[in-house]
Predict the structure of DUF2029 domain-containing protein.
Amino acid sequence: MKSPASFKKAAAWALPYWTRGEAGRDTPQDLFRVLYFGWLVAFTFKVLGSAWDVSWHFMWLRDDLAPPHLLNSAGTALAVALTVIHGYTGYGVDKAALRLIQWGTGIFLIAVPLDLINHRVNGLDITSWSPSHIMLYAGTFFMIAGVVRGWFMGAPPGRERVVVLGAFLAFFLENVHFPEQHQEYGILSLGAWDNHAVYAEKILLQFAADQMGRPVDRVMMTGFTLPVPDYLYPVYAVVVGLSVLVAARLMIGRFGAATLVAAAYVGFRTVAWPLLTYTGFPPSALPFFLIVGGVLVDVAFLVRMPAVRAVLGAVGVTAGAFGALMAQNAVMGPVYGALMGQKELLGAPPLATSSAVWAGLGLLVAWLAIEWFAARRRPLPVPAPPPPVVTPATP
């Protein structure tokens, strides 16, 4: 633990900065780094809590004060504090970044009581795609977008700028992909049921069955574990998830950026998998296909013309991502029945392969929109000064 002298020293350093100011004011570099490393800590708490949360809800009946919620709340509290600091002092953000952070934090804080009310009225949320949950994701979406912009606009060039930007974009990918975890956990829980192994406690299954007006049978389990159409998972993953990787490649501006952002997120999920399963929590399918998509995004950016690479990239990414999903599907099913000691990590929720057409078109539109927006925001070149007028010498 830090000594009182350390806290006094930190307070003496921070207090002179606690002055009212407009967004966009000059920010000392040491203060800028402290603020954004604070955001890294906040998002780390939120990601650790959310990673645990889905697994928790596939095992136990919901509890407002469940440990994953408390861990996520610690990150939210720090995020709120940082939002107040940015808003009051104006340090570390321009007006656009501040508005995004404030709107995102506000939406999230409004969504929290709405979600609690929803659970009080309706009991369980059978799906992570419910309106109150979507509000939580939307609030976090704008919050991280503001932080990404603030760091992108204010961090000095160098390795630290690139690494931290990549970390923020990996948090962004985690947030947009989060609702897909319902299907990633659901498919393995349904496979376990088919092999006479059950992850969830009996009170949770009975609660869900009573809510659906059915006995605890396979129809009820299917409604609980896979409550959305089969086309939603692949189309959303390709259009939304891979759009984040396109934006990451554009912002970082280096070959391999999209792949590394995808690998950072999938790597975190891969490390969390045994930590959860070997402590008794349900397993999930892992979205390895996002790494395939990241590689194809990076390859597409070798084409210099934005419109051409958007077309080629959308076709390639869609084919590659669906190919990876289908390969994962091929090994999915009864092999996931074992409650513990699961040996096979690959797997993916059911997917409607015909939806690849719509996923490809959606990604193409999103890719072109990102390219267009990035081109509009790119600073115009400064014109060269006119050559000096040379007056001929008088003979």
